[in-house]
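Internal ticket - ligand job 416, SAJ:
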Amino acid sequence: MHKQRQTVVVVGLGYIGLPTASILATRGHTVLGVDVNPSTVETINSGRIHIVEPDLDVLVRSAVNSGNLKAALAPQEGDSFIVAVPTPFFQSGPDQDKVPDLSYIDAATRSIAPFLREGNLVILESTSPVGTTERIADMVAQLRPDLVQVGGSGRGQLSVHLAHCPERVLPGHILRELVDNDRIIGGITKCAAERARDLYKSFCNGGMHLTDARTAEMAKLVENSSRDVNIAFANELSVICDKLSINVWELIELANRHPRVNILQPGPGVGGHCIAVDPWFIVAAAPEEARLIRTAREVNDAKPHWVLERVRAKAERFKEPVIGCLGLSFKANIDDLRESPALEITLELIRSGVGRVMACEPNIVPAKGDLPLYPLEEVLREADILLVLVDHEEFREVDRELLKEKVVIDTRGVWR
Ligand code: SAJ
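stdout (structure tokens):
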């Protein structure tokens, strides 16, 4: 029987690893958080955070103050290990297809391998292509042959338990969703899944759904692909409606009055590290079969270019256009710029010299040398064209009187 209070090593202290490590620590586990970035480690050990997420600062401070959470550059021995590192993609092959980059997972596996003991639990939380948990098992078996037990059948079995438990929290609501969301737990063995479930039960109130590792891996990819396909539908509608002079926001609101219709919201494109990435893992695994999933990605990836064309067309009316870009993050009320279409559009406007660009991002403190950021009031005063790229609260509250003389391109329907 495993211990209720464990020593847990969490590898990767980003948007998933840090909240998970902190909540485990506040539930009485002894947690070592590991990150390759020395400044991240230092920040966390001083009880502060390096990312923006509501209430995370309070949680991390209390976890560090309790003495249960420490950050370090390298792992140590423990009872359980949670891997929460990025899984980006890179372009490869003659068609420049997007294929998953497992180098962070491989590096994390290599870093924990020397510290593994018989009976340990290793959980992969990073969103991963199907087969990654098995790949970790193979790597551990290679790096630590002493952990492979040869059974009666002559086949080797790892004496470390491995499971995939994909994170499913929504940035901006991570702490609530970490506790309330159901979890899918896929074990390489049934025992591994049960062990992982027992650990998650110490902080998660949601249902625990046990399966095998491959199904859990695919479930996570499918969840995000489903959202991507639905957003692509909304984005395609917005382009069609523009052509037909129909207000897409009103249209969607009306269509959604149907009891079985639930259309999502169009935007300038799909950003973030998850929805714009994960569907490619399915496409890479089944390129011939994943036709709808690939097309949805292409529709969403094309949306920033469509927005840029609209801005260029409007800018032509001005001799020296000033373009106010409202929002840079990939979605509302966060600071996360990963795969952000808003940032992509803003940088392209600057690069192509369409006009003078004034970017405003209320969630980011401007650093010297970076893209210059302007206060909202200044942008509202000086810009000829106001391009809404993110539906931040601050923008919703803008006095509509201030927009009267402006050309407005509202990709989020904030001022509809
Ligand atoms: N978006 C739209 N229209 C919409 C909804 C979203 O354009 O109607 C855009 C957003 O602006 C953003 C992108 O899509 O650019 C993604 O945002 P999101 O809020 O849909 O999702 P993420 O990336 O913040 O988090 C997703 C979540 N997955 C699902 O909802 C299925 C979350 O639960 C996952 O944990 C997360 O991906 C992840 O880490 O995989």
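Auto-summary: The pocket of SAJ is lined by residues 127, 167-171, 223-224, 227, 231, 264-265, 267, 270-272, 274-275, 330-331 (CB under 6 Å). The first strand starts at residue 7 and ends at 11.
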